[in-house]
Recover the amino acids of this structure.
């Protein structure tokens, strides 16, 4: 067990998203107001834009073709960003950190099958009039499926593949499936290092792969952008918002105690001092105002802070009509008299689900160290219900000591994280 | 983060739904009696089941399903997903057992941490838009709202935890764990840490899963891990037996109420046992098989012992992962020997899966409950069908017949495909 003053600090960051493949590229893109949305060309879904990352290939990650058969985009993104965080924290240079000393905690999304993985089985199991015949499926159809395909459907497998690659054998878990899961992964890692069970923890998350199935799921949930004539991607807190867009990406943070960082001679980038998690839903598509306030309040309480102590809030702000309205109201009520600045990164990055919290934590760390707040992209004209200082159009120069990050699910889960200046 | 002394965590409620029934004590009595829940696949449940390469499963029967649907009519109509319905039932039973339904508990200090499986991949969702070997993406993108009600297109793994929280007004921390077959034990361990850390006073935790659907049935056949025998179906699941032929799939849920000890005492709750320690580990070996020497599982058990402050001489029982696969049974046995050394033969070990099948992501839920009941009642359920001991598995697996034995503390093990391991320790409550 560490001492009360021995904060958990970030000592390495690995990022891959639409705005860049390093935290520096991500930061520069956000400051310049560069968004990553592109037209997808997947069928004729009402929302056909997404913020896609330049996904690393199996070759660049030295993954054998045989192994890559059960890997998908999320696997590559996870392995890539975990390797980067591991490397940035200089873990390999410290042999006294054994594989069992390294914790590994991730938020991982829903894993959809590739239609091509099952199409031959369906074709072999279909009757002449196109109906599915399960008798045929069991007798011959299922044999068309690659025998290891089931492993590719388990979302923990990507973490396990990365553990093999990095020889990580310590405490671990996988949270699913939405943005709150990224906060939970970070919280578990902080508890593991603070409790002395891990010397270092890699914590992070990955987005859903953007596919026909994930687009269908997003539309059925009623969260994807519905105004097809608007060429801009999602517009957090704007009066013109009409839904979110999917993004893909991943981020991992290396976490350890401040005393461990000092002992190893690595520079702590920022501290993680609290989190809060809550549930509540009074209508579809996300947490209630009460739940959002509860998660923010619990995070402040754990960090021993008051609302006025927070300089910047990186909102969930996904550009959905109801979600942004509830979050705006919760923020307004909790921070009504403070000089809080608020942004959302989803205009630039899309909805990254489990990757949102670690990416926003990286942005928070950069904002603290640079004294700059990047603008919230595509948020103008700002909704008149927004009664806080939303940073739009250009970066804001401001001393940032403490940042709150909000992450929500579509099922009613709300989570908040506090990132602070070290020292 | 302001660190405080870790709080003690106790078990104050139990709820489950398995092939053995929908009541905890009914499950326990059948488990002690060595009753198998495995049966031939119900043809009314699954189209084309007569041709299935898997002949038997430990399924929740139609009568039990009817009771669950009757208890949650709105959810039955809107969710249409077996794992979530099982989760709701087990949560109701656990909350009722803990006297927490309609209680004046501070709801924002009350959480839910639930394990869930991968969900249902419906072939109908491809077949509907498939013609001549090609998928009509344009058609799907316009008609996706016709996709199957229980498919992953309409559901996500968060659904069970959210449904429980919404139904029972649980407004505190809410999380979902997905680490394959280690999920439920990891969920219980995560909840344990949350209460230790002061993030919640009470948490409903455990797991729910069902893969008794066409893709689910062939899932483990493709991986060559499923039992495909069809004779004497109640004897198909044979953990630690040299005539074993693979895992038998089960379905259901096991959910428990974990509570801060001081909170439980203050409200006069019935306390079953104390959660003494928890740990997880990774094999980092290969994602298709456990590390043969059992060192990954060994690390989980060893770290859990360290976390609990107990020595190996305090452990009287291990509820094994015991899947009835050669790879698992041998690696788990090796791990137990590595941890317990000369004491390994003194520890009673049994596999609940021999009776309730492999509940996959949920498996750690009912198995944790059986572990708690062993600690409470000083009784250990048998490993049934263990009539031809595997010479490579030479420990005391409590074959065939239950045993009375003082159980001061016990370990429940769960190991997931991919190489994630979890061990949790329960001990008798003391002031």
């Amino acid at each position: 067990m560490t001492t009360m003053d021995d904060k958990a600090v970030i000592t390495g960051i690995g990022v891959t998203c639409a705005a860049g493949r390093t935290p520096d590229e991500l930061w520069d893109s956000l400051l310049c107001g560069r968004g990553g949305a592109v037209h997808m060309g997947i069928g004729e879904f009402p929302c056909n834009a997404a913020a896609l990352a330049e996904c690393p290939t199996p070759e660049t990650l030295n993954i054998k073709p045989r192994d890559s058969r059960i890997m998908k985009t999320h696997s590559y993104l996870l392995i890539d960003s975990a390797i980067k965080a591991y490397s940035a924290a200089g873990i390999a240079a410290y042999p006294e950190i054994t594989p069992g000393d390294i914790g590994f905690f991730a938020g991982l999304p829903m894993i959809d099958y590739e239609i091509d993985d099952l199409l031959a089985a369906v074709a072999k199991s279909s009757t002449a009039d196109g109906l599915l015949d399960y008798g045929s499926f069991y007798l011959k159809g299922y044999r068309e499926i690659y025998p290891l395909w089931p492993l590719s459907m388990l979302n923990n497998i990507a973490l396990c593949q990365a553990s093999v690659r990095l020889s990580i054998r310590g405490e671990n878990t996988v949270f699913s499936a939405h943005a709150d899961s990224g906060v939970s992964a970070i919280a578990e890692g902080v508890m593991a290092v603070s409790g002395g069970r891990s010397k270092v923890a890699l914590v992070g998350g990955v987005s859903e792969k953007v596919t026909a199935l994930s687009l269908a799921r997003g539309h059925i949930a009623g969260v994807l952008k519905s105004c097809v004539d608007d060429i801009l991607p999602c517009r957090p807190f704007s009066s013109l918002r009409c839904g979110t867009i999917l993004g893909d990406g991943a981020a991992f943070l290396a976490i350890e105690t401040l005393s461990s960082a000092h002992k190893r001679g690595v520079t702590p980038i920022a501290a993680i001092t609290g989190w809060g998690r809550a549930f509540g839903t009074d209508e579809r598509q996300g947490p209630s105002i009460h739940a959002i306030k509860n998660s923010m309040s619990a995070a402040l309480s754990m960090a021993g802070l008051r609302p006025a102590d927070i300089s910047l809030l990186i909102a969930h702000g996904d550009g959905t009509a109801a979600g942004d309205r509830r979050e705006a109201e919760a923020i307004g009520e909790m921070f009504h008299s403070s000089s809080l600045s608020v942004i959302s990164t989803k205009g630039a990055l899309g909805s990254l689900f489990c990757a949102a919290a670690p990416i926003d934590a990286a942005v928070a760390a950069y904002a603290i160290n640079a004294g700059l707040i990047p603008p919230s992209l595509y948020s103008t004209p700002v909704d008149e219900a927004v009664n806080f200082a939303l940073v739009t159009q250009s970066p804001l120069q401001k001393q940032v000591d403490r940042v709150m990050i909000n992450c929500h699910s579509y099922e009613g889960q709300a989570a908040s994280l506090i990132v602070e200046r070290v020292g | 983060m302001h660190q405080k002394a870790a709080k003690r965590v106790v078990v104050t409620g139990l709820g489950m739904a398995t092939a053995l029934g929908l009541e905890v004590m009914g499950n326990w009595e059948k488990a002690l009696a060595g009753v198998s829940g495995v049966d031939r696949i119900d043809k009314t449940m699954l189209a084309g089941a007569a041709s299935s390469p898997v002949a038997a499963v430990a399924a929740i029967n139609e009568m039990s399903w009817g009771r669950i649907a009757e208890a949650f009519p709105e959810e039955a109509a809107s969710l249409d997903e077996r794992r979530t319905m099982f989760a709701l039932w087990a949560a109701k039973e656990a909350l009722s057992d803990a006297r927490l339904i309609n209680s004046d508990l501070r709801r924002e200090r009350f959480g839910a941490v639930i394990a869930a499986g991968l969900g249902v991949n419906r072939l109908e969702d491809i077949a509907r838009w498939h013609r001549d070997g090609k998928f009509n993406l344009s058609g799907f993108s316009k008609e996706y709202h016709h996709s199957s009600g229980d498919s992953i297109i309409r559901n996500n793994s968060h659904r069970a935890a959210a449904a429980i929280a919404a139904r029972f007004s649980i407004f505190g921390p809410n999380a979902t764990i997905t680490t394959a077959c280690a999920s439920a034990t990891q969920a219980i361990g995560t909840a344990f840490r949350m209460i230790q850390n002061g993030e919640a006073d009470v948490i409903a935790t455990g797991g729910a899963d069902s893969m008794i659907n066409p893709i689910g049935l062939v899932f483990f056949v493709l991986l060559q891990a499923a039992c495909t025998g069809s004779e004497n179906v109640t004897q198909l699941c044979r953990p630690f037996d040299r005539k074993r032929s693979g895992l038998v799939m089960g379905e259901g849920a096991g959910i428990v109420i974990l509570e801060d000890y001081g909170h439980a005492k203050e409200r006069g709750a019935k306390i079953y046992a104390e959660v003494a320690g928890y740990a997880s580990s990774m094999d980092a070996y290969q994602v298709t098989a456990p590390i043969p020497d059992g060192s990954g599982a060994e690390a989980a058990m060893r770290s859990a012992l360290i976390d609990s402050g107990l020595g190996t001489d305090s452990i009287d029982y291990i509820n094994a992962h015991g899947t009835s696969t050669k790879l698992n049974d041998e690696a788990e046995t090796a791990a137990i020997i590595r941890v317990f050394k000369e004491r390994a033969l003194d520890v009673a070990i049994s596999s609940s899966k021999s009776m309730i099948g492999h509940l996959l992501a949920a498996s750690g839920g009912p198995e944790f409950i059986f572990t708690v009941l062993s600690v409470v009642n000083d009784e250990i359920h048998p490993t049934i069908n263990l009539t031809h001991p595997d010479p490579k598995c030479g420990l005391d697996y409590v074959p065939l017949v239950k045993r009375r034995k003082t159980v001061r503390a016990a370990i429940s093990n769960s190991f997931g495909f991919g190489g994630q391991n979890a061990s949790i320790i329960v001990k008798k409550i003391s002031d």
Summary: Chain A has two domains: 8-111+154-420, 115-151.
